[in-house]
Each structure stands twice: as structure tokens, then as C-alpha cells.
Amino acid sequence: MADRSRSGLEFGVLGPLQVLADGRQLVIGRRGMRGLLAMLVLEANRVVPIDEIVDGLWADDPPATARTIVHGYVSRLRRMLEQADPAGSARILTTPPGYQLAVDPWRLDFHRARQLVSSARGKPAPIRAQLLRESLGLWRGQVLADVPGEPITTDLEELRLAALEERVEAELELGRHLELVGELRQLVGEYPFRERLVGHIMRALYRSGQRADALEAYQRFHRRVVDELGIDPGPELRVLHEQVLRDDPALSSPGLAEPVALVPPRPGVVVPAQLPAAASGFIGRDEELTWLDRLCDSRDLTATTIAVVNGAPGIGKSELAVTWGHRRAEQFPDGLLFASLNGFAPDREPVAPAEVLARFLLALGVPSDGVPRDLDDRVGLYRSVLAKRRVLVVLDDAWDPEQVRLLLPPGAGSVVLVTSRRRLESLVVSNGARMLTLDALREDESVRLVDEVVGKPLSEQEPVAMRMLVELCGNLPLALRIAAAKLVFSPEWTVEALVAQLSDDDARLRTLDLADTGVGVARALAVSYRNLPPELAETFRAAGLVPGRWVSPHAIAALCQTDLGTAASRLADLADAHLLVEQWRGGFVLHDLVRLYAREVLGAEQPGHRNAALRRLMDHYLAACDHARRLIRPVSDGVDLAASEPTVPRPATSGQALSWFDKEWPNLIALVHAGSEAGLHQQVWQLVRLVHTYCVARLVSREWHGIAEFGLASARISVDRRGEMLVLHAMHAMNVWTGTTRGTLADAERAHRIAEELGEPRYLVMTLDQLACSLSAEERNEEALGYYREAVEMARRDGDALGEAAVLNNLAQVEQRLGQLETAAQHQFQAMEIHHRNGDERSYVLALNNLAELYAELGLLAEAEDNARQGVELARGGSMQFEEAFGRQVLGSVLAKRGEIVAAQAELAESVRLFERLGSPQAMLVRTALEALTTEV
């Protein structure tokens, strides 16, 4: 029977009522709706009168509103079918005096079952048996088991029994009497008056050497029909009984002793051995080979085991499958079959299953004039020939599951290896396939591979250059072999010279190409790219444009100007095609060579598009960073971009915002560099300023200083005085947190001059605070106090609560160093209250800890301990690692003063651990205090 598409709607009554939409089961709903649909399906393409429907649903007791209820059921069923398949592969029509289901009969399981039974008639026994097995496989249980009433389905039950009897007869012809005895005993017990089944068990028993049991089966049936029905067995069964009694020779020879007799091997051919030669010097893949070994060793010897080896172009899928096949060839005594399906061949059409079947049948010994023309007959013969054979079938470079399914052999412990650039996930669902996804090689494996291909230990002669070579090849086997081949073809080349050429991003893909052989990384990727629909091609180019390590659906939505769901779906489709990898949920990564190819395609197909797209990406990240930083700590710097992009991620808490920054941080650094190169200076300085809040919270100081220089330069190039002042202020704030404010006075003075030019009070408050802090670092504390007090007064006049609190906190720090402890405590308390009122939890916790330290110096140890403990608890609950570490440092100091040494040591030790995790230099100070306390004890 011709293979049919699974698209559209399919209806099943051979079991519980079932409606499939593109292979997905629909929920039908109420029992009455199920009953109505069942009637329409059973009478498909025929009008079912509404009176007949009412009788079927309610028998003799219909409600007064029965017809109205039926109309409602029809309306809901129509809506369900239309939503599931707008193309209308099945429709419910109103045709007086009732309704009819208009549908292609092939979409009905009972129609397919009937056609399979009909097709089996007159076919050779192997094909007949296979077709009948397929027909019986359509039954999923009792017909319409979940439908109310008593639908008339006796003809379908009779169809199943007839197919069952025909199948047993075909298998008896094939000599499978021993295998059938147990099944027939059960069937005769279940259907004791089916004469044909009784005849089948008599033949099976007789041919199995159980003549007495065969006669007993007849006698038992004879007694039953005489006693219960008052009739004798039919003439055919009586003739069979007489044949058993006289040991008729005709009973001893079934129509076909063994299925293989139908296709005797050709002279000189014992078993097929079609695997291509394995590549010499196969390197690595130990885990993958072990996985395949384990799958083979633990397989069910009565079934077919399928493994789909998938991965990116050039990753080594075919090489792995062929190598493993040769290594385990002795496990498959009946042959090794291989077919290249050309699913992704650059200049060839995918090979049709019919063509592969013809090749396999010839290899299995079928003469050329014995290969059937019809696809179904080829499938049937192929399965019959391999029914009891154990073979390995390697199907290389598959395009989709439909190209594979008809080539799967039957049971007997056979193994099928399918390689593809796609995941072919439906083979897992429908055929129980196992999935093996190949990744790039490890660095040591890559080095060994190059050494093996070149034929000498380059890794010993040029170890550093070799590591750079394999890194530039992305540990991709195809790229590594091409690079090694270039070293072989041109012996005067050194690894270092090849590395220099590969280091140029614009030339790398050209270098990894062997023009004379038609082999190259870009050529392999081009095949996958050309097969993408336009919307996926657009997404692929956009993904290559993202400069960071990974791509999110949010970024793609911004670049492609689409909604988030569509972006996520497209990325998933590209991952399915192995043009990128989903390393975590929503996190997609491109191989370096794939990224270079995507950018080349973008440049070739859409020249000049890159800067416009990069600008959209920068706008997206500016909005996302602004939203996230405001959750970490309230801001008042006048940079407000949080609401400008609809596709940005929206974390809801400070902890979620920090986690978002943690994931995106490498991308943000890369985006600063890319934006600078593209001349997007206004956006660059804004991005640098927006990520500052995160950098302070996580103490990301080294990388921050790197991008801060780009931000400062970008602000100055774009002659944005406010931007320059804000970046200078951010650089100063990070220096405060890392304790490196000495030498920053000149920058503080420049920032303050710009603020005076701008004339905005909040900027004057910020820069006065910065100036005072820098003066304090130069031990000019009295000058610093003057600037701090001026800043506090200005903030109060302008209603700048956040600015006032920040300055009061820093003012208290200087007063503490000068010994003005009571004044410092008063200012610190004021700062704490303002932070609390404005919802700045992080600054509130820091102020609590600072106040605890001041209380300890004032001798108020109980108050100090309370504040420190409160600060630690709030920090632990709010993902504030620095604040928790500082709080434990203060608490440890307070506990030591109270004589609780063991508790103090525990707090200080935990403080050291947290500071070290953050990379904070303060860890050394706390460790010194801990060691001094331990020594004292």
C-alpha cells in the first residue's frame, strides 16, 4: 500500500475513538460528541439521518431537546476539526435529512485495514503475511470501546478475525508451525466455534510432531458443536481430520518451508557486506563507541534496534557509523547493508526508498527480474527476506523520517544506524529509536587527529601552535582533516603559518576549503543553509550577527522584529538542523565556524544590513539592562531605557535580575566591543553605564574596567558630556567598592566640571560625592567633609532622596575614620532610613552593617549584634553575597568583643569564603583578623 502523508486529520475506530491531527491526538470531549462522531466516521461520506443519530445516542428514551443537543454537538465538532486542520482534510456537512463526514477514505483506519486485507489476496505467502500483520496492527483494542450506546461494528470484528485467520494460514505456509501453536491454543479458547482456527491448530500441531494433540483438538471441537449447537463439523474440517488419521503426506509439507527459499543467494555471494571502507586513523569518540556497543549488547533479539546519530555538518557522523559497523561486523552474521540517502548532498536529490529497497534486495540475493515494481511489494519482500536474519543496516545522510521508515528491517535482533543533520525525533516516538548527538572533539583528540593525518607528531614539534590550530578549527573533524591535508599537500608550510592564516576571520573559511576536491567547511554548511525556509534563513543570519557566546529568543525577536514565541520556535528548528545547539533552555550556541559562515552569508546577501541590525540588538540590550539593574538597586542617573523595547526579558526580583546578568555578561562584553567597532558610540557608553550596577553587586571589577574604557572613549567621541560624566562616575564607584580610589581625583574634578556645565542638581550631588571621596582617599578629610555636606544640602533641596542617602553613607564613613562616632552613627542611621523608605534593599542592608560596625565601636554591642544579624539574614534572602560577607565580618568582630570566640571564628570563616568567591581583596583583611583571633585563643 502506498505510503501516505501523516498531515491533516485521521480517524480511528479500531479501538477507542481517536482523531489525530498531524499525528497528534485530539481531545474529543463529551460522551455524546464521541458517539455522534463515531456514527459519522463509520458511515463516512454517507448521510446519517438525524433520527438515526438520536436513536443511536439515546435509544428509546431521547430527551425533548435531543435534536438541539445534536446540533450543538455538530457545531462543536466542526469547530474542533477546523481548528485542528484549517486546510479542511475532513469536514462535517449538513445534508438533509442529516449530516455526513466528507473525508478521504484513506484517513479512516478501518478502510485502510480492509484495503490491506484485500491487497493480500493472491500475493505470495511472505508478502501476504506482512500485509495482514500491518492490517491487524491497526487494531488498538475493542472497536469503539469508549463510545456510548451499542454502535454496529460486527463487520469490523469479523474483518479482524478473517485477517487473523488469513495471516495464520500464510505463516503456516511459511513453515512457522512451531511458533504458532501457543497463539492458536489461545485463539481457539477465545473463539471455540471458528472452524478455520481449529483447522489451523490441527495443522500446526501435526507438523510440530503432535499428531495425538491434533486429533484431540478435532474431537474437542466435535463434541462442543454437537452438544451446544446440534450440528457436525463442516466438510473441510472433516477432510482434514481424515488426513491426520491416515498421515496424509500432503500435511507434512507446508507451502513454503523457509522464507529464504524464495530468494536464494546468487552464486558466490554469502551475505551482503556493503559498508564503505573505514577511515584509517580513526581518533576519539570513545564514549560514543561505548554507547553504541552498549546499545548493541543489550538489544532485544526479537526486535529491531534503531540508533539515530545526528550532529552538525562535518562532525563525523558517517565516519563513526561506518567505523563502529566494521568493528562489530561479527555480531551480524546475515550481512551489512549500507545506503547513502543523499539527504544533504550538495548536487543530488535525496534517494527514494523504492530505489534503496531495490539495491538491498539485489544484495540479499533476489534476481533482478524478481524485484517487484510496486513499492509496497518491495517493502513486503524486503521484510520477508530479513524476517529471521540478523543484519546491520546503515542509512547515511537521511533527510527525514519518511525516507527511513520503509527501510527498517523486521525483528531478529537487527540494528539500524541512521545518520542525519536533523534529529529525526519522530523515529524516537514511533519506532523506539535511540538518539546519539555528536559534539566537537576534545582538544587532545583533535591534536591526535591532525598528527595522524599528517603522519608525524607535530604536537611535539609545535605544541603551542597546534593548540591554536585545533581551536581555530573549532575541534570540528572536517575542518581538522582539511587543515591537516593542507600541511600534507604543502610540506613547506608550518603549523604557525597556517594558524596565522586561520586567525583572520575573513579568510578562515576560505582556508578550510579544498577547491580541487569540492570539500570544504563552508560547502558543507551551505547545503544545510540552502535547505532552510526563508524565515529560518533570516533567523540563522541574525544568530550569526549576535557577537556574544550564545543567542536568546529575546535577541532574535528584536533582530528579526518578530514575537518571542516565533523566535523561540525558529531557534529550536535551527537546533533541530544542527546549525546551532541549545545548551540550556532558551540558550542557543553557534559553533565558531558556523558563526563565521552566517556572517559571510549576511554580507553576501544583505550588504550594509549589519549595522542596522546591530543597532536594533543594542537597543534591545539597553532596555533589558535598564530593567534588570533597577531591580538590583534603584537608580536616579537620568538614563531611562527600560520601557523602549517590547521583547526584552522581564525578571521580577533582584535575584532573577542578577541571574539574567550572570548569563548575559559575556554577551554584553562582546556587544560593547562590537558596538565600538561599528561606531555606535552613543549606545556603547549607555550600555557601559547600565551594566555598572551589576558589576558592583557581583564585584566584576577586572572585566568592568576593560569595557569602561570603551564607554569613556565612546562618550568622548560622540561629544556627549553627560555620558562622559556618568561613565567617570561609574568608574569611580567601582574603585570605591574595590578600595582603589587613590589617584582618581583628576577624574572626579573633570566629572564635577561637566556636572556644573550641565547644571542638573542630581549630577552635581553625584560628582560632589565623587570629589569628596577622592579627596578623602588623599587624606584631605576636612575638604572632603565640606563637599559631602554641600552635596547633602543640595540633595535635600532638590528632593533627591537616593542621592542624599548615598552621600550620608559616605559622609558617615569619613566621620568614623576621624573618630566622630556619634555623628557618624546619626548620619548612617539617616541613610539607612532613606534607603528603607525608597525600597533600596541592597543599600539598606549595607547601611545596617555599617551602623552595626559603628555601634560596636561605641560599645553598644547588643545593638551592633542585632543590626549585623539582621543584615546577614536580609542579604542571604536577597542574593547579596558581598553584603552577606561584610555582615558576617562585622558580626564576627562583635561576637569576638563579647567573648563568644567559637561563634566569632565561624562567622569570620564564612566571611572569608564569601569574599574569596567574589574575588574581593577584603578576604585577606578578614583572614588576618581570623588568624589573629585564633592565635589569641
From TrEMBL:
Source organism superkingdom: Bacteria
Coiled-coil segments: none
DNA-binding region: 1-103
Alphabetic keyword roster: DNA-binding, Transcription, Transcription regulation
InterPro entries: AfsR-DnrI-RedD_regulator, BTAD, NB-ARC, OmpR/PhoB-type_DNA-bd, P-loop_NTPase, Sig_transdc_resp-reg_C-effctor, TPR-like_helical_dom_sf, TPR_rpt
One Pfam short name: TPR_12
GO biological process: phosphorelay signal transduction system; regulation of DNA-templated transcription
Positions of the OmpR/PhoB-type domain: 1-103
GO MF assignments: ADP binding; DNA binding
Family: Belongs to the AfsR/DnrI/RedD regulatory family.
Identification of the protein by name: DNA-binding SARP family transcriptional activator
